[in-house]
Design a protein that fits this description.
By secondary structure, the chain is α+β, with helices and mostly antiparallel strands. The protein has helices spanning 46-56, 65-71, 77-83, 104-107; strands at residues 2-9, 12-20, 26-32, 93-97. The longest helix has 11 residues, at 46-56. The N and C termini lie far apart (30 Å).
């Protein structure tokens, strides 16, 4: 199954992207809104944006990730990333389902509690 999300930089809509919700893989970038706000080295090339998303996921060999995926019945680290809106502690990019009205302030790991587990 596929679903559309907005790729955001804080509250700026950068692009509309489509994900395979089972695997968590980015299928395509369907619209580009703010090319100057794309992640570094992603401008102009859809494949680079897909690679950026892939690289954003927790590495498969990171300690305890496989156990965490099994315990929570999550298919892959890409699915885990999508389930968590692509949030990271290293930047302000995230994804938001197109039908969800949520702000950066509501989801930011910098401003909200998160599990250190």
């Amino acid at each position: 199954m596929r679903a559309s999300y907005f790729l955001k930089h804080k509250d700026v809509c950068v692009a509309q992207v489509v994900f395979d919700t089972q695997t968590g893989n980015m299928a395509e970038c369907s619209k580009l809104y703010e090319q100057n706000c794309l992640p570094v080295f992603c401008a102009g090339i859809q494949e680079r944006l897909k690679q950026w998303w892939q690289d954003r996921a927790v590495p498969k060999n990171q300690s305890n990730i496989q156990a965490l995926l099994r315990e929570n019945d999550i298919a892959s680290t890409q699915s885990f990333l999508l389930n968590n809106l692509g949030l990271s502690l290293i930047d302000v990019y995230w994804v938001c389902p197109v039908n969800l009205d949520v702000s950066w302030k509501q989801v930011s790991l910098f401003q909200n509690m998160y599990s250190k587990r």
